[in-house]
Amino acid sequence: MNNNNNHSSFAEEDQVTDFGFRKVNQTEKSSMVREVFDSVASKYDVMNDLMSLGIHRVWKKIFIQELAPRPNLTLLDLAGGTGDITFGWLKNGGGPAYLTDVNYSMLSVGQSRAFDKGYVKNINLFCVDGEKICLPDRSVDRVTISFGLRNCTNKDNVLAEARRVLKPGGRFLCLEFSKLIIPMLRPLYDAWSFQALPRIGQIIAKDGDSYQYLAESIRMFPDQETLKGMMENAGLERVTYQNLSGGIAAIHSGWRI
Known about the structure:
The protein has a seven-stranded mixed sheet, sandwiched between helices. A two-stranded antiparallel ribbon has the order 1-2. By secondary structure, the protein is an alpha/beta fold. It has ten helices and nine strands.
């Protein structure tokens, strides 16, 4: 009976998506991802430091430099979570920002941090699904998503929505874990991802399973060239990317011309 039920729920290939290394129904993924981030929200920043050995802070500085913040530009930060990119944008002279996330728990941490940093007047906080952005066409100058795109159910829809809300001349930037381009480092990287991270997650966040998922989701994410093609298919132009730390992460950039 169970085999029949599983078969019927995945009967249509386009209804299936990845959740780490598992295949799940598309309608189930968003709630499963939400449970992961509900679980890890309070320890998310600490775990980011541990997961990347602090290197994520360097990556984000490079990312914000690429954004080239200016007071007359408006930022939409998708999957903005605890606010690192939004705060970096404002700290470096950027204009008004929308800090958004589909997860209330993550957004509440971002809101608390915004109060602590005195940024509340310059930030609008919204619970937003990146596949259905509640902003008008051509309304913002920059759209960012940092370590969030791999958790989205339909990445093509997110990219299309990002382009839709960009003004002509606006720019989309994605910072995400990518494909390591240094073969000799792969065994060490795999050991860190699949052995160390879940154990650290269990100790720090009392949730090893969520960090197992996060490690798996990185491996399932499109490689650099594939994501570049997806952005071009969404209508973004002059798409480029730069590898960080040998491809452990990458910054992809595209423009609405």
